[in-house]
Amino acid sequence: MSGRTSPYLALLGLAVTVVSCTSLAGLLPSAGPFSGPLITPNPFATATGTPFGPLARTALPPPTGTATITPPATPTSENPWGNYPGPVEPSAIEIPREMPVIPFSERVVNVVLLGSDARPTGGGHRTDTMMIVSMDPDLGTVTLISIPRDLYVYIPGWRVDRINVADGRGGPALVGQTILYNFGIRIDRFVRVNFSGFETLVDSLGGIDVQVTGYLSDECGNVNWAFSPGVHHMDGFAALCYVRMRKHSSDFDRLRRQQEVVEAIFAKGASLDGLARLPELYASFHQLVETDMPLDQMLALVPLASTVLADSSRIHRYLVDTTMATGWLVPYSGASVQLPNRDAILQMLETAFPR
After folding, report:
1. To the nearest 5 percent, what fractions of the chain are helix, strand and coil?
2. d(CA 208, CA 52)
3. Is 50 exceeded by the pLDDT of residue 93?
């Protein structure tokens, strides 16, 4: 089942965990079937962008070196996809085997945050932000994992391709299946957000105070931006530019910036002022975010939200960085992608979810 909820609840409940939302009881519509991709205007003219997303306060490794064309691997004679749907098109590399499934308790809620670059003119859309949020009420923790948009993975029933095309091909269900195959993480719920919804949300919160942890000098929207470590107040346009710019950085650095902005949105939304304005936020933004997380599940996570608000060390941040992926050019198309280092990713997952 799916439906639309306040983007405040959806964004913050997804990115970090749900905050006190009892004042919205009775205001939210009942869940209804999800009818397909949310198509909304893109405020920028560039090909793709990143609305916001991921996590981490530590400096990221430098980008990998220039990608080079490598001969495609020889296809395996077996069917490595097991019980998943097989490919319908050939892949440039050998299809990897599925990752071991991570055993989660029934009370853990795993949500995937999808930042879409959908356009009103059609032509499909790509997911330029993908963050997994694992909420564990028993441990009192929230674990965040960011995935680069160009990670080259097997999309069940399709082929090996960039992970950011999965939503456009098969919606959140295919995204969940792709994450399960390549990360072993079951996905219980989804939230999809678009550029304009993100910008409007930040503006209606009165802007956000972002703890910037690195240096950035770039251009966005015909404006030159310069950021140094420290707290920066950003309106919606500035925040959207901050998480999108990459002319003079990299997609991996954008993961760091996305994480900073999500944390700032959570902090502002969870403030007394933000909580007092929840009905207003819902009335303004319920058209801008899509999710299949029902209200009763959100309300059940309120105690976890309070725990995390009181102790931010309970938010554990991980991302697929340059130690877990290598730049590569797809021979037949010349597309620049990131080949996953499965052993390194598996080690990160074992650290994030110890058994």
Report:
1. 30, 25, 45
2. 13
3. yes
Say how far apart CA 242 and CA 109 lie, in whole Å.
29
| Tokens 């950085």, residue located | 249
Residue 295 CB partners (closer than 8 Å, separation 6+): 5, 24, 25, 28
CATH 3.40.630.190 is right for the domain spanning 7-352: yes
Predicted model pTM: 0.75
Residue 237: name the closest of 279, 208, 275, 271 by CA.
208
CA-to-CA distance for 147 and 164, rounded, in angstroms? Answer: 9
Give the neighbor-by-neighbor strand order of the sheet with 109-116.
289-291, 189-194, 109-116, 127-136, 141-147, 315-319
Q: Where are the domains of the chain?
A: 7-352
Residue pLDDT, tens place only, 98-144: 999 999 999 999 999 888 765 444 445 667 789 999 999 999 999 98
